[in-house]
Amino acid sequence: MADQPNVLVVLPDQHRGMATAPAGNTHIHTPTLERLAEEGAYCPNAYANVPVCTPNRGSFLTGQYPHGHGAIANDLPMRSDVRTIGEAFRDSGYNTAYVGKWHLDGVPRDKFTPPGPRRHGFDYWAVYNCHLNYFSGHYYRDDPEKEHFDDYEPVALTDMALEFLDEQRTDEDPFCLVVSPHPPHDPYEDVPQRYRDRYDPAEIDLRPNTETDATEAPQSSGDLAQDLANYYAHVTAVDEQVGRLLDWLDEADEADDTVVLYTSDHGDMIGSQGRYGKSQPYEESIHVPFICRYPKEVPAGSTPGQIVSTVDVAPTLCSLAGVGELPDSQGTDLASALLGGTQVGPSSAFIGLPKTVDISAINDLPVWRGVRTERYTYARRADGSPWLLYDNETDPYQQENLVGTEEGTDLVDCLDAEVDRWVEQTGDPDLPENELLAELELVEAWNQRERSRHPESPQLVE
Asked: Into how many domains does the chain fold?
């Protein structure tokens, strides 16, 4: 293959950062992620900018915040004219492939995305927009006839990814492959028994901030420990499939010439703070794994403390591979930090929820914007009023909200200024949600979404 490195990204859905062995979790079995961390860089301070599937997936591909790429809420389409890593790598001579969950082409969720600009540069295509059927779900290739998994989804997707990789054996061009399994996203129980058997709920410690009334959430089985055990089973299953991909790289003698990145679009509360799902400023929702291996360049066993956020992924991958820049990227190229050099980039991650939808409404969440610094998590409502403030150093499980306390007063002023700086720097309109839809010319797209997702009671915007 060519001198430029191959790129392999594994992007599972809803994998929270503390659910890996490299993060110090002794209850979970993730030997492949341990291996990746030992052979590469594990970044412990990685965060989802908007901890929701569609918005953050768009940010992963473009390096832009959702108000830039247009998909500010689940099931809104990403703009066709934004440039992604797919186009950047393809235009630099890479063979590009995307396998798995996409969730960037609007509604209906089972729509077919034909070859062309809506695929954003990915030529090999084995993709579904969004569904939760992990054993016989559909996907599309290059025609609108649905094909169906014949196995548990992560296994079936890995089979297809290996099919693409086998086609690269005799090709002199490098490849860029994204594999995006939907697990460990709920339904938690939909995981093969062989993985469930590895976890006894009675032996798993719930996080200290878990609240029993969370079992009323629609995702819950009614048994928090069982939900967490099943979630861990999904993670272990995904970890095993990553191992199959690494085995291929070893067998094909491509491991040293391949950048491998494992990260996620957001986390999952699973009972913490009495909540399930994502969309929230809490650590379980915003903290994601970030492990990068590139044997030729990235020091093995390193743990860069640099704050990493989703918008940084695209410019960093482009830099590591030496491909063309993404001119509208708002993220930071963190390659130098991964390569063992001086840490660069911002001292905080800009986080938020610009539009409430579905699960955020169920959790009675406001629209919010905030920051995650090395020490603090701060979130304010759309009207500017402080909502949450946690000192993660003294309160790692975020059980004491400092908003309204004497200790928190000066901190709120300081962190408000940091949010204001990000709003100005990123061009965030920072408007109430329906005004934001109008400002970004997304009202019709939103109404289409609502008619498709909630035909009985669409929440339409005029």
From this structure: 2
State the residue range of the domain holding 329.
6-343
**Which pLDDT does position 364 carry in this prediction?**
72
What's the pLDDT band for 344 if we cut at 50, 70, 90?
confident
Residues 201, 273 within the same domain: yes
Q: What is the CATH number of the domain that holds 444?
A: 3.30.1120.10
Is residue 14 within 8 A of residue 278, CB to CB? The reply is yes
pLDDT tens figures, 170-217? 999 999 999 999 999 999 999 999 999 999 999 999 999 999 888 888
Cα gap 255→295, rounded to integer Å: 8
Quick one: how far is CA 10 from the chain centroid?
10
Active site residues: 53, 103
Q: What are the strands of the beta sheet with 95-101, ordered from one edge?
A: 41-42, 290-293, 258-263, 6-10, 175-180, 95-101, 124-128
**384 and 282, same structural domain?**
no
Q: Is 327 exposed, middle or buried (0-12, 13-18, 19+ CB in 10 A)?
A: exposed
Q: Is the peptide bond before 108 cis (omega within 30 degrees of 0)?
A: yes
pTM of the model: 0.97
| Residue 1 pLDDT class (50, 70, 90 cuts) | very low
